[in-house]
Design a protein that fits this description.
Glutaredoxin, 8 strands, Glutathione S-transferase Yfyf (Class Pi), Chain A, domain 2, globular, 4-stranded mixed beta sheet, 3 domains, binds glutathione, alpha/beta
């Protein structure tokens, strides 16, 4: 077998996250340029490696892994001399996983939105709200780092490398001023001094910086945001899941909890009543999202980070989140797909339903169907999304997919694998309690909103 091959182009932040990790662990790798501009990610050959046609993709031992987050955790697990960059300690790992999903589903999409503006799209209101969203993401990051040196405590982890690649890019659109964001500014300063920074991130960044600067010249100034400083304080007890079971992400965690027979408490927190924004809840989760898990006095959020944590800590074996590095990387890729593709497309469809332009709704439908198409490909001929046994990837996608099909049906003839998979999962003994009931409440809630 040859050396690991990284496919991509280093202008891409996701590719640079992988390069940073590869350099951090001293990996002997080969880099193969895949140009998006030349559509090299859509060739038949590349699609065989990665049907989702994203860069980066890793080839290792004849297997393919994509999604930068799945790749970097895989590389550390397989090739690093120790686990410092992705600790085996379950709580530390869950914190890192939450940061990785934050990068994947919040920071990165908010940055990508900026690439949509330019001379032909200068809608000032949309631009203002895109910039506000980025500043809010900086505020979250400032809270996550707290008084630590790094994003998951006092040593460098893959969470830093993933966020670094994107953050160093997005600040060229919306600067994160030292006065307003002192912690993340010093963090950036610290990381640019890593011996491999220039080679792994700096060089690729230079390539797109000039492009961003040019785009930004047509942007307006954005308004300032208040930065809140929060203090943490937690309770002990049995694991508590905070949230409302009508939300897909909460249901994903409930499915996992039921699958492993967890004895938990569900504390209702309703975002529509602003219960996620109380001082008390913000102490548990400054990102004010549900679900949030409280376990042993510690709080973890992001459904994906919670599910993998729960399995690692409480399940009788690792079948729902295998320890085998390749199998785990496949599950991680599916989780990040849910977080950064499937779920955002569901929300985009919801927003498009309010548009008066029928084309907007049609485009949103097309991108939902494309996501179904990816899922059909991920399944291949398998019974489950990451092979022949059930994993947390199935739960995460099940909760979202079962919600989406009420709006955009997935027809049996077009998506036979996916429909059979759904059918199979609805027969799980805990399906109704963990997903079905909440889904029904979700549908009733939508009906009520529509009739108002
Ligand atoms: N969550 C993915 C995002 C990867 C991604 O979207 N990469 C972009 C370039 S930065 C891409 O490949 N775009 C082309 C496409 O999706 O067809 C990751 O972290 O790897």
């Amino acid at each position: 077998m040859g050396k690991p091959i990284i496919y991509g182009t280093d202008g891409s932040p996701a590719v640079r996250a992988v390069l940073l990790t590869a350099h951090a662990i001293g990996l002997d790798y080969e880099f193969r340029e895949i140009s998006l501009q030349k559509n090299e990610h859509k060739t038949e050959e590349y699609l065989k490696k990665n049907p989702q046609h994203t860069i980066p993709t890793l080839e290792d031992d004849g297997k393919y892994i994509w999604d930068s987050h799945a790749i970097i955790t895989y590389l550390v697990g397989k090739y690093a001399k120790d686990d410092a960059l992705y600790p085996k300690d379950l709580y530390k790992r869950a914190v890192i996983d939450q940061r990785l999903h934050f990068e994947s589903s919040v920071l990165s999409p908010r940055m990508i939105r900026m690439f949509g503006f330019g001379p032909s799209n200068k809608d000032p209101q949309a631009l203002e709200s895109a910039k506000t969203a980025i500043v809010e993401a900086y505020e979250f990051l400032e809270k996550f780092i707290g008084s630590n040196q790094y994003f998951a405590g006092d040593s460098l982890t893959v969470a830093d490398l993933s966020i670094l690649a994107t953050f160093s890019t997005v600040i060229n659109f919306v600067p994160a001023e030292q006065g307003k964001f002192p912690q993340i500014s010093s963090w950036l300063d610290r990381l640019t001094k890593l011996p491999y920074y220039q080679k792994a991130n700096g060089e690729g960044l230079e390539k797109i910086k000039a492009f961003i600067k040019k785009m930004s010249s047509c942007f307006q100034l954005f308004r300032e945001h208040r930065r809140k400083v929060l203090h943490f304080g937690f309770n002990m007890g049995k694991p508590i899941i905070y949230g409302m079971d009508r939300g897909p992400t909460v249901r994903a965690v409930l499915l996992t909890a039921h699958a492993i027979g967890l004895d938990y408490e569900l504390h209702e927190i309703d975002p529509h009543k602003n219960e996620t924004k109380t001082e008390e809840f913000l102490k548990k989760n400054p990102q004010h999202t549900i679900p949030t898990l409280e376990d042993d006095g510690k709080c973890i959020w992001d459904s994906h980070a919670i599910s993998t944590y729960l399995v690692s800590k409480y399940a009788k074996d690792d079948s729902l989140y295998p320890k085998d590095l390749y199998k785990r990387a496949v599950v991680d890729q599916r989780l990040h797909f849910e977080s950064s593709v499937l779920s955002p497309r569901m929300f985009a469809f919801g927003a498009a339903r309010k548009s008066t332009d029928p084309q907007v709704l049609e485009n949103a439908r097309t991108s939902v169907l494309e996501a179904y198409d990816f899922l059909e490909k991920f399944l291949g001929g398998n019974e489950y999304l990451a092979g022949d046994s059930l994993t947390v990837a199935d739960f995460s996608i099940l909760a979202t997919f079962s919600t989406m099909i009420s709006f955009v049906p997935a027809e049996q003839e077009k998506f036979p694998g996916l429909c059979n998979w759904l059918n199979r999962l609805t027969q799980l003994p805990y399906y109704q309690k963990a997903n079905g009931d909440g889904l029904q409440r979700f549908m009733e809630h939508i009906k009520k909103l529509a009739s108002q």
